[in-house]
Amino acid sequence: MQIESITLRDVLPDVFRAEPPSGSQVWLTQITFRRGQNYLVEAASGTGKSSLCSYLYGWRTDYQGEITFNSTNIRKLSVSDWVDIRRRHLAYLPQEMAIFPELTALENIQIKNRLTNCCTEAQIMDMLKLFDISNKANVPAAKLSIGQQQRVAIIRALCQPFDFILLDEPVSHLDADNNRIAADLILSHAQRQGAGVIATSVGNPLMLPTDTTRISL
Q: pTM for this structure?
């Protein structure tokens, strides 16, 4: 199932039921994300941006309303559906990165790539070189800086085919140069696949093109 659109209808995190937020372009409204388009979801801390990503990835279901992939309510998806979606159609970089500290930078990336067979080792090393961390490939992640770990996590997220990529504060620990490298790399992978990019930010946004749709959470 190729995901052409993601639509939220009257969605609201359960935690906000007692006091729904006002002025949101996402919660308690209808919004559609379309494949091939870029979106930047800008939010203050605590307004639900990580929750949004978790809902779209199927990790959490503590919300009211309806989320659909194309015309299918995601609450109706089976475990096997989600396995296929997460392997072939929906990439995700969570804010906490989910890096295994005891594994090397390369091993952390290979965990994903072995499931998808998407990139060659040479392609992975080229991405590490772009981020100037190829010399850290065999270093345990626990010994990397947070910014280096974030670069590893970005590469890992790209090691799969996808219709949409969800990026929760993907460059929060990166400087402007690495932000630009990250944006170029993500956009090149997305454009090659005709995929959509959905990134969140609380102040240091991914450097997406000027025609990116900006959404207030």
A: 0.96
